[in-house]
Amino acid sequence: MDKHNCIDYQSISLTINELHKIGETILAEKLNSILNNNEIPKADKHSKKEDRATSYYRVTLNAEELEKLEVLFLELEVRSLDKNYGSTGAASSYASIGTKWSSIVPT
């Protein structure tokens, strides 16, 4: 599978939830549209062909939308640091998802 401008189901789903928390409903709906329309077909012999959790989606977002996502996850990462500003599991998770969004090329 070509993973250029692709992101996994769980990352998109978590992003949608976080966008709703801050009132970014338009961008959340755009990501919902990606989930509904841009799934990358799995190999014929894939063992979990019907499981969305193993799916990847082609992302079509502009630079401004991607920047919003990158900033969102940077802020979530910082808020998840411990009281000594050390990393936590949540902070690492947010950093990982932010990195995924920052690797997407704007369309």
Give an overview of the whole structure.
The protein has one domain (6-102). Helices cover 53% and strands 6% of the residues. The chain has four helices and two strands; from the N terminus they run βααβαα. It has a two-stranded antiparallel ribbon.
Tags for this model:
107 residues, mainly alpha, two-stranded antiparallel sheet, 4 helices, 53% helix, globular
Which helices and strands occur, and which strands form pairs?
Blueprint: E1 6-8, H1 9-21, H2 25-37, E2 56-58, H3 63-79, H4 89-102
Antiparallel strand pairs: 1-2
Helix pairs in contact: 1-2, 3-4
Could you provide a short overview of the structure?
The chain is mainly alpha-helical. The chain is built from four helices and two strands; from the N terminus they run βααβαα. The longest helix is centred in the middle third of the chain and has 17 residues, at 63-79.
